[in-house]
Automatic annotation (TrEMBL):
The keyword Membrane applies. It comes from Sphaerisporangium rufum. Residues 1-20 are annotated as: Disordered. GO terms for molecular function: transmembrane transporter activity. This is MFS transporter. The lineage of its organism: Bacteria, Bacillati, Actinomycetota, Actinomycetes, Streptosporangiales. The chain crosses the membrane at residues 29-49, 69-89, 101-121, 127-148, 160-181, 187-208, 242-262, 277-296, 308-327, 333-359, 371-395, 401-420. It is a multi-pass membrane protein. Residues 237-424 form the Major facilitator superfamily (MFS) profile domain. It is found in: Cell membrane. One of its GO terms (cellular component) is plasma membrane.
Length: 424
């Protein structure tokens, strides 16, 4: 195992140029991806599948409203606390580093929250457990995301970002498998994903080598404390990258939230068919995301280019949504889903690397600013259910029009990356 901390001088001696961390090896990349995968399995499995089972057990006829309350409260907590935990991680001076304590403590707190969800005797306990889970896993996410800027040199960020980008579809598939494997025990439906999150955190903490921040000059001026969300907006490159991500993820959220209604109302499929059709849609999209993400991240590093990948991928995603909007059959719908998966895979692989390249205050505020970026990912999940009914009402209930708007938003996200000047 490597030393816990190293100074910038030691990092340069290890092979990194001035101001750059040394290269990371396959073991680091695998452990980093495993930590993200464990985190997303623990977070997404309840959201997609198991929370509905637990709510049905506790709330009965009020299950739908209760699930909305529980998941909505958790989403708000995630939105607010991620940059706060990032700022706290940036200011941590533990001998174990700035990120490692938050990765481990966050995973343990999140797992404890899922354990409460698994055994809660009532809705109040369920809500409290899910809030604890969201707090813990967002603390873990804030620290994990910052490691890309802290520990990975610019020439490897596309590759590492690509490996991280594919963990979400992998988590969805693994979560579905875990639910089937633990179908006889409601408790294990939550405890098994929690255990994977902790395992991923422990493995990554064991291989993480953090650089010690440069010591403050004696008698030097202290940097004034800033609100976690106030700093990065003074940097246009970061702001445009945030806007681009927000617009693309709004398109993603509109598709993910309303594709079931589209299949029934526009394609005329029965409600009983919807789970099977969404399974195939998810499988096709996930395969495309994984394929495109792994290739695009590596090619981006080899060429040293980021903007063109982000710009084109958002356009491709928008084009896929336009295909879905005009789909006359489920086969064409699947073709559109594959196109969106290709665009999403490239975007997820390269956009995070682009943001890390232009990140302001990388040495002192990486986790805080990455937390602000995470708002661009999380906020559309909350806004889409509120905005879509307005669009549908104006369009006479037309889901193709809704997806047309989603496609245009994604294409605007592509245009928003053009003003970024800090990377090629």
């Amino acid at each position: 195992m490597t030393d816990t901390l190293s100074t910038p001088d030691e990092a340069r001696a290890a092979g990194g140029p001035a101001g750059e961390p040394p290269p990371v090896g396959p073991g680091f990349v695998a452990a980093y991806a495993a930590a993200h995968a464990g985190l997303w399995i623990a977070v997404l499995t309840p959201i997609v599948v198991t929370m509905a089972v637990r709510v049905q057990q506790l709330a009965g006829p009020d299950a739908a409203a209760t699930q909305g309350l529980v998941l909505g409260t958790g989403a708000v907590l995630a939105l607010v606390t991620n940059p706060v935990f990032g700022a706290l991680s940036d200011r941590t001076t533990s001998r174990f580093g700035r990120r490692r304590p938050w990765v481990l403590a966050g995973a343990l707190a999140g797992a404890a929250g899922l354990a409460v969800v698994a055994v809660a005797p009532g809705v109040g306990g369920l809500l409290a457990g899910w809030c604890l889970a969201q707090l813990g896993f967002n603390a873990m996410l804030a620290a994990l995301t910052a490691v890309l800027a802290d520990r990975v040199p610019a020439r490897q960020r596309g590759t590492v970002s690509g490996a991280v980008g594919v963990t979400v579809p992998v988590a969805l598939v693994c979560g579905t498998f875990l639910v089937q494997a633990t179908a006889g025990s409601t408790a294990w439906m939550f405890l098994a994903p929690a255990a994977l999150a902790v395992a991923g955190a422990v493995v990554f903490a064991a291989v993480l080598r953090e650089r010690r921040p440069a010591p403050a000059r004696p008698g030097g001026p202290r940097r004034p404390a800033r609100r976690p969300w106030s700093g990065p907006w003074r940097h246009p490159d970061f702001t445009w990258a945030w806007v681009s991500r927000f617009l693309l993820f709004m398109g993603i959220a509109l598709l993910a939230t309303f594709q079931a209604f589209y299949l029934v109302d526009h394609l005329g499929r029965s409600i009983a068919e919807v789970p099977r059709l969404i399974f195939w849609s998810t499988l096709v999209t996930s395969a495309a995301v994984i394929l495109a993400g792994l290739v695009a991240g590596r090619v981006s590093d080899l060429t040293g280019r980021r903007k063109i990948f982000v710009l084109v991928s958002a356009l491709v995603y928008g084009a896929g949504l336009l295909v879905i909007a005009a789909a006359p059959s489920f086969g064409v719908f699947l073709a559109g889903a594959a196109i969106t998966g290709l665009g999403q895979g490239v975007y997820l692989a390269v956009d995070l690397a682009l943001v890390a390249d232009v990140l302001p205050d990388r040495e002192t505020g990486a986790a805080r600013n990455m937390g602000v970026l995470n708002i661009a990912t999380a906020l559309p999940q909350s806004l889409a259910p509120a905005i879509a009914p307005v669009i549908l009402a104006a369009a006479g209930g037309s889901y193709p029009v809704l997806f047309l708007v989603a496609g245009l938003l994604a294409m605007l996200g592509s245009a928003a990356i053009a003003p970024v000047r800090g990377v090629r």
